[in-house]
Amino acid sequence: xxxxxxxxxxxxxxxxxxxxxxxxxxxxxxxxxxxxxxxxxxxxxxxxxxxxxxxxxxxxxxxxxxxxxxxxxxxxxxxxxxxxxxxxxxxxxxxxxxxxxxxxxxxxxxxxxxxxxxxxxxxxxxxxxxxxxxxxxxxxxxxxxxxxxxxxxxxxxxxxxxxxxxxxxxxxxxxxxxxxxxxxxxxxxxxxxxxxxxxxxxxxxxxxxxxxxxxxxxxxxxxxxxxxxxxxxxxxxxxxxxxxxxxxxxxxxxxxxxxxxxxxxxxxxxxxxxxxxxxxxxxxxxxxxxxxxxxxxxxxxxxxx
Amino acid sequence: xxxxxxxxxxxxxxxxxxxxxxxxxxxxxxxxxxxxxxxxxxxxxxxxxxxxxxxxxxxxxxxxxxxxxxxxxxxxxxxxxxxxxxxxxxxxxxxxxxxxxxxxxxxxxxxxxxxxxxxxxxxxxxxxxxxxxxxxxxxxxxxxxxxxxxxxxxxxxxxxxxxxxxxxxxxxxxxxxxxxxxxxxxxxxxxxxxxxxxxxxxxxxxxxxxxxxxxxxxxxxxxxxxxxxxxxxxxxxxxxxxxxxxxxxxxxxxxxxxxxxxxxxxxx
Lengths: 305, 268
Prior knowledge:
The structure holds two protein chains of two kinds. Chain A is mainly α. Chain A contains twelve helices and no strands. Residues 1-8 of chain B have low confidence and may be disordered. At the A-B interface, helix 8 and helix 9 of A face helix 3 and helix 4 of B.
């Protein structure tokens, strides 16, 4: 793929995502050397040289917590995104390609899942689990967020199904699995990549919502859990902004970064959506104007002669 | 239509269809795309199916190829019923009955090289004792291409004509008994079209290949076929030797089709 196909939006989005990922993975090693058990001060100490973003309700360093929280949010996002995309793509592709009664059944199940509000199912499953690790929270989110993917992928698959190369594959004796893997999926790959990025962002926000309600991972921390404790210990009333503003900004950055990445990928894969940059547009208008002027000059000189 | 025209009483019959029907949709909204079509093909015979768009020609082709489930009726290849074949039997059927479609752009999987495309089809030949590689090269040469040049190319590196010739080579590689060509030459330029038609003519002579051409081009039907079938609204309205159908059409639909052929000079 040529680099010129990527827009500046794409690079901005990629930049944000990399920055956040870097912060979450390498941050704890590089910046503070503290971990989640280190106590650096008292209840809601203000930001200082010792604790850059102050301390939380138990005297932990908020900056350190922010890095670990970002890390677990990203882990939840990627694991949940992978699982949800996998389920959605399998269900959608099989339904779209096989058609008939199989399609009806799978889509009926998908529609039932869509009709039930996701947050209700999330809360119920989370309450039912005794202890929740980061992975189990990710799985719970994944099993409730695949239906949209399944529906969208089904639409794509049934449009690929009408292409003649599938007839050629069948006439070549290829079996259904081989046709789905080699003839249907590659045609949807760009779409699947976009869906995956979108799923990551949805999963991160869902995790934050669950954690805010106190149903997040029961060990470690996450951005949502930080908000949960900040609320529970009334940081807003104590005007301890450092307890809730940093995780909120971080969460917004993560979700925004992935959403921007998804929409700029859409532009890369679907050139019809691509917009001119301001400079290109000005250049085009300018060249059109000079052409018009030249034509005008030609006609006036022609009539003058 | 009289009966003996549908069922020639000799052993030479490669393919026979009787009462083929395809219905789309259910109950009162059902559409009969192909309605009670019966015909027989002899070894080495070239038959053309003509009819306007929507007359059911392509549906018929897809039924014969077993790409579309058959609502009712039966088909037989060399006297064996093939209407309900599955699995291995169907693969064996596809070794003997192959097709070329109209659009050489959408018929290619854009992620496959020519070699991979042909190899995939070649799997149908795995039980037969053949050297796939030489078969592949021979088939490409038959359609006037140089195997060394095209085998490692991807579809986007080939022109429409080249792609269509590779599709034809793919079908011929199997050395089928019956070839279905669904508007196969309509996207080729005139000289290429003549080349391809001549290749098929030669194969008919050398390898007893029977060809079922599907076209809306009556001129082409006239040029190459032994018999013409005329379809209208899914029904077979005329079935006879080319000369009879072209010069002495019985059904008024055929007469109308013929009247619409543009004339460069009057044959009077």
